[in-house]
Amino acid sequence: MKDSMVELEKFDNMQVIKKDRENQRVKRELEQCKIEHKATLPPPTVPPRRCGLGQMVNVVGPRTYSITVYSTSYPYGAWGRDAKPAPGDENKYWLVMLTSSNVYGHYVRQYSTLSTLLLGIGPKDTYISSSNPTTNTIQGPNMVMYANALYYNCYYSYSVCQFNMTTRAISTVALPSDTGYNNKFPFAHLGTTYIYTDMDFVTDESGVYVIYATTSNFGNVIISKVETSNPPVLGQTWKTSLYKMTATNTFMVCGVLYATRYLDKETEQIFYSYDTKTKEERFDLKINIKKMQTNIEFLNYDPRDNLLYAYSDAYIVTYELIFQ
């Protein structure tokens, strides 16, 4: 019995020693972890994404929602900011109303700030022509301002117009001869057609694009970069498999084209994307946009503030894009 007790005591002592050694090892490892944690670690490797925005996951808003001084007189129009303003013009906003038949416009109205636009104070009107419509005036609500020039569909033609806001000079560049215009390939949904929206103009971080469709591409969307020289020229072109008349609008972010469709009176949905770098095409996006009016006649992304600008049944609206 005495021998057994001695053996048990030896066993207990060995267990205590082993436990003590284990505790010492754990303490050393903890100290090493503290040292490594305090060290400056290199940033994690992140797959490169253009513009640094990541993937668009949501649309929040509206952030701005207001009628203009024209009230509900003109349901078709466009508005926004110059995506590449001249020094001193960073805060300006522009507004174009299609004052003839909800199709044609002939002047650009500018305001010094968003507040003056909302209040209708101190507008400056720059006329493309005294007549409306006529050669090289505006046809359709899709247009953008870039580097002090307005880009739009020239009246009754398949050409891009560039209107210099300072000199009032107009330069043009023709799209392919089988390009749809005059309501051949407008934006649409089952309930309505958005008249004279055959051409859409969009801006992103790299400049201006024109979105259109041709008979040779079976009415599917084509994206062409517009080089903003004077006169403008067409740059790189991408052909998609998106039938244009299944979409209600398009916009571009970081070289990725997004298209919307009509769900109901309260909701528009971003359902499609085309990446001009990878040529990846997706039809499975389901990013909803909350509407305040039934229709969105104009939609464009401003790379300066990452907002979507919309013209919706005579109301001017902005939305915030969320990326991750």
TrEMBL record:
GO terms for cellular component: extracellular space. This is Olfactomedin-4-like. It is found in: Secreted. InterPro entries: Olfac-like_dom (IPR003112), Olfactomedin-like_domain (IPR050605). One of its GO terms (biological process) is signal transduction. Signal peptide: none annotated. PROSITE patterns: OLF (PS51132). The keyword Repressor does not apply. Residues 50-324 form the Olfactomedin-like domain. It comes from the Eukaryota. The keyword Secreted applies. SMART domains: OLF. It holds the Pfam family OLF. Keywords: Secreted.
